[in-house]
Design a protein that fits this description.
Blueprint lengths: L2 H22 L6 H16 L8 H26 L4 H22 L7
Amino acid sequence: MTGKDYIIEAIGIAEKVSSECEASGKLEGNALLEKMAGACKDLGQIKNKPSLRTRDGADRAYPVLEMAQKLEEDWEDAMDGDDLGEADESMEAFAGAVEALINALKSKTVVMT
């Protein structure tokens, strides 16, 4: 898989969780939902960067996918109970991983031959 594949999968997971959050009303008015929406938008803007097609790009994108998968697990656990603490932390971690990836890709230049 390439970094682009990881990003596309992460976007799908995050958007699914985000829509479930909105539908449940548990996080209504929470700034983390807006932060997650912004992170998904940012990922959508960078998913076609050539540097994500490299091994290094895939290595940089994989933590974002891991955070999205953890977010999904924590959200499912939160839906079973009333404790949203871990889900909140996972949302914050996901947004942080996206920001770190974007910052890492800013300094990358790939020459395609």
